[in-house]
Amino acid sequence: MAKGPPWVYLSLSRVMLLVLSVTVISAIALCLLSWRLSVLDRAVAQQRVRERLDHAADSGSGALLQAVSETGERLQSFLDSNSAGKIRYLGAVAHGCNSCRAVLIEPGLVTLFPETRLLYSPESPPPAVIDDGAFGGGEALEFNHREYGAAAAWFLELAKRSKGAVRAGALVGAARNFTKQKQTGDAIAAWSKVEELGTLCLNGEPCELIARFARLSLLASQPRQSEAGRLLTDLDSGRWLLSRTSYEYYSEQLSNVTGTRRSPPMWEEAVYSITQFVRDQHIAAGERVLHSLASTPVLVVWRTRGGTIAGMVFTPADVRTWLARVPGFVFGLETLDNQVILPAAHDKLRAERVLSFGNAHWRLSASAIQPMAEPRIRQVLLLTSLSLVIVLVLTGSYAVIKAVSRELAVSRLQADFVSAVSHEFRTPLTTLRSMSEMLERGRVPTEERKQRYYSLISRETQRLHRLVEDLLDFGRMEAGKKQYDMRPTQISTIVSEVVVEVSEEHAAAGFEIEIQATPAGFVLGDADALRRAVRNLLENAVKYSAGSRRIVVEVRNVEGQVSVSVQDYGMGISRADLKKIFRKFERGSAAKASSIQGTGLGLAMVHGILRAHGGSVRVESEENRGSTFTLVIPGVEPNQETVACRAS
Ligand code: ADP
User: Fold this and answer.
1) Which domains does the chain have, with CATH numbers?
2) What is the pLDDT confidence band of residue 10, given thresholds at 50, 70 and 90?
């Protein structure tokens, strides 16, 4: 088999390499480009998020400043007003918010709106003064002589004679001395009498509280626990108005007994802090975050006039309500020394503003409730177009590689074809030359041998003629210029004639061609073209017979179709070759391996001829068992009109 020129293979690999490089480079470039674009995209998106956060922080600051300054103005106008019903106005100021309290602190009186009972007050009344000498006798017996029994009796006696704070003090003294005497029953009885004095204050603390608390130490563990719990509940109900120190003392002691931990009361802390702050630092008006350990931080706005302080205490919930005017963001609010009123989100992306109200400076931070969505549509678009471009580049490259390799395969086949045709020509020409030379030189002795040489020359000439005709015909078919002279033709006649011709040609080699023809099979066809098709099949059957000498030709009429089948018992065709033998220049691998000459045009021509006749050609074959080629042409009535048509 002849090979194509080396440049064919060289350029194929070059072209493939080129296409692949272009594909890979463009894909990489596209990936880089899209990565760069998505980085830019993200930067733009982040910039946008930052802008929105800045805007939110500005709006939040505005809302906060407005709420605080409006509150300050209201408090001021409350203090400046002389109207009788102004106290109601303060209540109305507090009405607008969630959980705030308005506070009015006057000397000796603290009022909260909405009304709230305070557990302790910075303005608690001063303790009643008891004459120091009233308890002198009892205290001398108790502390100087340590005669507790006598001291207890002395105090009881004094209690009988006295009233109010003195009676209370005497009963306390008696209870104390009974305790020291270890007369628990008497001590408890004395404390119960103190309890009966109720809210009467002894050293600023109610007798009831003093007695119940003192009695706890005389009780057994279990009743002490439950009594301490009850006392704590009473303490937290605001039943007694205490000083801050007293409240904190009792609260802590009782919590230790009951084992509970409680946060300091919020409003009391606020009122206490504001009073301390205003009085200690003489700051008449201001806004502050008050933050005591373990208690809810509060925001206080206050104004003063004379000894009166009017203030508003806002909880974080109130501040959150102001900031809710800017929806979709989480706000954090803290003082510059990190006292938090609203905890900030942990989000790294946030905008901060420092707000200044006279003497207070706060930091407000805004972050998004949910991480702000990046413009996904653009990303999706980018990815889709990138994938599309990559698919297009890959498909394009595949198509180019396919087309180039097909072209190269055709040129390789053509190269093979030229070499095959040269071979086909060389064999008869060599025979013709040697025969004619011998005849010319008179080297053929007998007349009979001369006759044999003449018929050999004639046969080889016909073979050459057919070969040339075939090539020319194929050229015309390829160019679409082949003219067919279509007439009603009896195909069985054509087949019989061709069988006779081929049998004669190959009789010497021992070929037997059996024909089973059903007559009257008329088709509308070009007799020459059909003859060529049948002859091609028969010659192939001979050529690829591989030792077998039997060929069966069958012509049949089935359901208006005329079929001609040529069956041989030769080398057969492999499955892979079956798919391509009808293409021009294609030759079977077995044919090439056995060095059987051929051009690879025969079956392509048969296929073209049959297509021009509206028919088809099919093949069944098994390797080493033989092949059957069948031509199928639509049958016609013998008197159908003649037409001429051109091959497609
Ligand atoms: P050529 O015979 O010149 O090679 P064809 O177009 O007539 O070209 O046939 C194409 C190929 O089909 C052959 O090369 C051969 O491999 C295979 N072929 C055709 N007819 C037969 C057959 N009867 N038996 C086995 N192989 C065949």
Assistant:
1) 136-264 (1.25.40), 482-646 (3.30.565.10)
2) low
